[in-house]
Amino acid sequence: MDFKDYIQTRWVLWSVVLAFIVLKLPHLPYAFYWDEAWPYASAVKNMYQSGASLSPAAIDAELSRGHPLLFHFAMVCWMKLFGTSNIAMHSFPLFVTVLFIIAVYEVALRIFNVRTAIAALLLVAFQQMFFVQASFVLPEVLLAFLAFVSLWCYVNNRFVLTSVLLTLLFYTKESGLVLGLVLGVDAVFRLFGNKETTKEKWIRIAALIVPAILTGLFFLWQQKVRGWYVFPGHTGLIHTQWQPIYDQFRACTKVYFRDDFRKYFYLLAVLLIVVTAIYRKQYKLLLPLIVLPITVLLCSDVYHGILPRSVNVIAWVILYPLSVHYVCKHIRFQNKHTGYRFVMLSAYLIVCFSLFSAINFLSVRYLIIALVPSLLIAAAYTVCCINLLQPKLYYPLLLCMLMIEGYAYMKNTALSDVTIGAFDGLYVQQASVDFLEQNNWQDRQISVYENLQMLRLKDFNTGFSKKKKPYKTVIWGVDPHTEIVLLENIENARAADSSAKLRLDTSFKIVFRAEKGTAWCEVMERKR
Q1: β pairing state of 445-448 and 508-516
Q2: Which end of the chain is less packed: N or C, by CB atoms within 10 Å?
Q3: Are the beta carbons of 387 and 394 closer than 8 angstroms?
Q4: Do strands 484-488 and 445-448 pair parallel, antiparallel, or not at all (unpaired)?
């Protein structure tokens, strides 16, 4: 490829990467939010003090939570080069995210075409969850990136690189083993095929066995050091009752297809598919929609009970890969064999990760690993239908995609760690800590209503304190000796409820309040 061809096929990619970085720069100086503050930032800084290591004993189990420590190890190595500031720490996940964005584009370009690559790029990069998580000191983006590139290397028979990447994936977080399961089943089935030599088949098996053995050694090591293979606090959260399993499986489908206004993109995609099928009189184009009715039921908060819970789950587990199979029959691949395998294995990963998530503790950000390939598949089929219907509609499609994503940023102002409101929450939290430090109130008794509020004052690793002067007394709840009360609406409802009660208490007065978006904080002082 000459330079002219490179520019023609990559200028949108590098423009989006540049825009993405510029938009993320204001987020880098912030302190740490929710799980980012504890345990991850605290765990990373503890490892920084003791030295980079992959040993299960490198940091306290309450900080590692029993997870493999590659993310922490990589963060510490990065900090050795760039320092321990909030900016330096947030820049590592941003660096990984940029690599991920590039990987999404390059894989889509090699499997499909430039148009699909651009659509997938814009659809993934500016999803609110992806954009917000891009600078958080959390392992989910790294996990999703490693899974994505591992799968790509696997279907391209680059087995040495596959083995290395899978090892890194498994050493990032246990949930990465789901991809190992998917690829393992595929490799076993391929043992009985006739298109490859026996040597090629066993090299593929070996590429999966090596990272599995290395990961097993980690957990054996952890058992020897800690006395358990998996953190007891996690095993205690595994669901064995059908109702929570069903609810969390539904939560997964809602994240993929409904939440954050993604339902409008899918509604647009369905409309284009139907119109294209009618216009071109190619009714087989409608076959991928076989999963639509059951997906709508699962995403509905009102009608999902029409069918038995087991029927809903089993039907979706069967119909989603079948739907993706029909998608593959209509889209054009640069290399049909490689492209088909990548897309279908992605579909199986989405299904298996949803089942895995249904039985374990679930946070929305965990689903980035499945959300990205689901969006890639949807983008590919939507662009396929546009090309069949009217190629000139491609640019209005991109505009509609961006408008839907932009609308989500405006309307979804929740204070979670997957919405843009997280930075409003960080802003007011920082404002309250700054106020305390400006008044030198570290020696006064301060009452809080949530553990992370306490950690912001007691644990400097959370990144909020500028003076790093220890607070003498921070307690949970108000007692007769309380001098200062720190309230906010970010962590839970207790602080907000207590704010209303304390306003009626004439012995306290509000001395500081900060608001941004839907986030607020108050500092109340006992009257003297």
Answers
A1: unpaired
A2: C
A3: yes
A4: parallel
